[in-house]
Amino acid sequence: MRAAHNATIVSEPTGMIDAAGAAWPDVADFEQVLVARDPRSGARIVLAIHDTTLGPAFGGIRRHAYLDLRAAIADVAALARAMTWKCALADLPAGGGKIAILDGPDLDRRAAYALVGERVDALAGRFHTGPDVGTTVADLAVVAERTRHCATGGHGDLGDSTARGVLAAIAATAAHGGRELRGLRVLVQGLGAVGAPLCRRLAAAGVDLLVADVDGAAVAAIAGPLDARIVAADAVLTTPCDLLAPCALGGALDVAAARTVPAGAICGAANNVLAAPAAGRILHARGIPVAPDFVANAGGLIHGVTFERDGCAPTPARFERIGGVVAELLASSRREDVPPGELALRAARAKVAAAAAARR
Ligand code: NAI
């Protein structure tokens, strides 16, 4: 991303400064960042391909009312990068990408998704897209009219596949602390597409289940049938538990929460659960293991990529493998006295760099 030609450009670590003095996100490590506008409707999208060293980019379509184009690029860049690392540690022949549609009251939704379909198709298989926040099965159908590189919902329940991976990660995190799932007091925050099936799987494994959601109906649908204790949504970070499973929005744990959260361990599906790397270092210093989110929540991606490539769902062993990776990371973290999230990032970067070097 270049600042306007007449802008004052000041070099600084996070990106460029435009004429108004605001920083543009740094996307120098990206293979491609494309901003497109449909001239008829004015619909705008951002499509980013971070790295295809390991294979074609995979990334869903997020429709969101961003503050501006800059915010959309920043969001897409962070999500696409995380996808590259997630693919690497999930041992998938795939790379990181993401698409954002800039939502607003005047958005011509059909035109926006049609534009996405045209741009994805023009990439001729370098990019595979699918659902993300704000995108429905009907939206995906519009994309799929224009490209075959779009998962349309016929792949199966990706939320449950994510939950299967999270369950394996939780079991590994518990084992790291010398515990088994039976009798473990697990607090699940967020009972949606991932949290709800995760609760069912945890209950079947005999955990002592606590649940929280801002949506009362979501709580009612889970707590009664599974005999789970209800925790108020605003009491999640102050309720003692053996393991906290954040499955709502990202950023649940900031530095202040990391200092006080009364959880023995943390492992959930929410992306970017640590609001800042400093929060991870504080939790590590307190002896609270945190299973890296982009490792624990890779089950849905594993399902999507396998289905796209092989036309069938992954074997159970593919989800179990997530537990093995988490176990290794937590053991290295203890040995090297480095937060597991930092080790995971290091390992993912090294894997991509080694593949790139082998190609040269
Ligand atoms: P969802 O939108 O289906 O469910 C989220 C749930 O969290 C909703 O029930 C919502 O009411 C609740 N919630 C929101 N704010 C809350 C709060 N402050 N306290 C308690 N509950 C709150 O989302 P989904 O698909 O289940 O995803 C959950 C997380 O996992 C997200 O961070 C997502 O990015 C991540 N993730 C999801 C994957 C998937 O396969 N769906 C794959 C990988 C990551």
Structure overview:
The structure is a single chain. By secondary structure, this protein is α/β, with parallel strands linked by helices. The chain has helices at 69-89, 109-122, 137-144, 158-176, 195-204, 216-226, 255-260, 277-285, 293-296, 299-310, 316-336, 340-359, and strands at 15-17, 23-25, 32-37, 44-51, 57-64, 95-102, 127-131, 185-189, 208-212, 229-230, 243-246. The protein has a five-stranded mixed β-sheet, sandwiched between helices. Strands 10-9-8-11 form a four-stranded parallel β-sheet, covered by helices on one side. A two-stranded antiparallel sheet has the order 1-2. Helix 4 (158-176) crosses helix 10 (299-310) and helix 11 (316-336) crosses helix 12. It starts with 14 loop residues before the first strand and ends with a helix.
